[in-house]
Amino acid sequence: MENCRFTIIIPNYNNAEWLDQMFSSIFVQTYKNYDIVFMDDCSTDRSVEIAQSWHDKFFDMDEWSGEFNVLLSANGKRWNGGSRNAAMRVYTPCMGDYTIFMDSDDWFSSGDCLEEIAKALEASNYPDLLRLSYYTLIGDNLSLCDLSDQQTVERIVADQNVACWTKCVKTKKLVPFPENTLMEDVVQHIKQMDNVETVASINKGIIVWNRNNRNSCSRDETLQNGKWKSSLYRYYADLLDLEVKNPACQAELERRRAVALDNIKNDRFVQ
Questions:
Q1: At what angle do helices 247-265 and 221-241 cross, to 10 degrees?
Q2: How far apart are CA 195 and CA 169, in angstroms?
Q3: How far apart are CA 256 and CA 271, in angstroms?
């Protein structure tokens, strides 16, 4: 079953507090055929030091023979979209069959997540994309978001769960992200769904979406107030430039354009 190789791409900015939890959840996976690409985006905390220490731990693990790359942003802050793009550009020549994105303050829900993903891919005849259910963590409350009914491109593209970590994507089908923005996810979501044909889903909660990190892009009000206005304009421009072929993707694109324009007209710049 371990013929399928995964690449796990992790963008990071100042999430040192959560990195041990995140790396530990990868370290304990029963399925060992994977590589890690950790892209640090100009962190000022101990993130790189912690990542390097885990790098050494992984290479001391006898049953694992993957790659672990710790990459540093060399041209200033890239934000999450730019960090993911940089990781893909640097590592593309040797990326695995499928790519999984993980934010550095989130983690796998259990040690058999990669094994369950591999089983689901095999059972579905290796589709272009596997939709991943996930858990939301708020305080001590863990709730499952079951996306297992989303087994068509039309159903997935119109869903509000646009995060790239809700998808395991065949690497050759990956599309890039908008850069220098807080709103990279929707545009990439529509573009990604337009670039796949076969999809399947899994009902196991794979990622734990950690809503307890007050410094995350989605919760830091200071960051949002300083970046959200330019992000919304850039988001609208990216939507205007985006071209898609699938009618369902086109319909979602037009809906998102209308909402974004309405937000701009009514000065709704803070998430």
A1: 130
A2: 10
A3: 15
Q: Is residue 238 part of a domain?
A: no
Beta strands in the chain (DSSP E): 6-12, 34-40, 68-72, 98-101, 107-108, 129-138, 141-145, 167-170, 199-210
**CB atoms < 10 A from the CB of 267, how many?**
9
Closest CA to 173 of 213, 135, 127, 208: 127
- The closest of 154, 174, 172 to 164, measured between CA atoms, is 174
Identify which of 238, 84, 248 has the alpha carbon closest to the alpha carbon of residue 150: 248
Rg (CA), the chain: 18
φ, ψ of residue 56 in degrees (nearest 5): -65, -40
Look up the CATH number of the domain holding residue 146: 3.90.550.10
| pTM given for the model | 0.92
Domain of residue 205: give its range: 6-217
Tell me the pLDDT tens digit for each residue of 72-108. 876 667 788 989 998 998 776 567 899 999 999 999 9
What confidence tens digit (pLDDT) does each residue in 244-265 have? 999 999 999 999 999 999 999 9
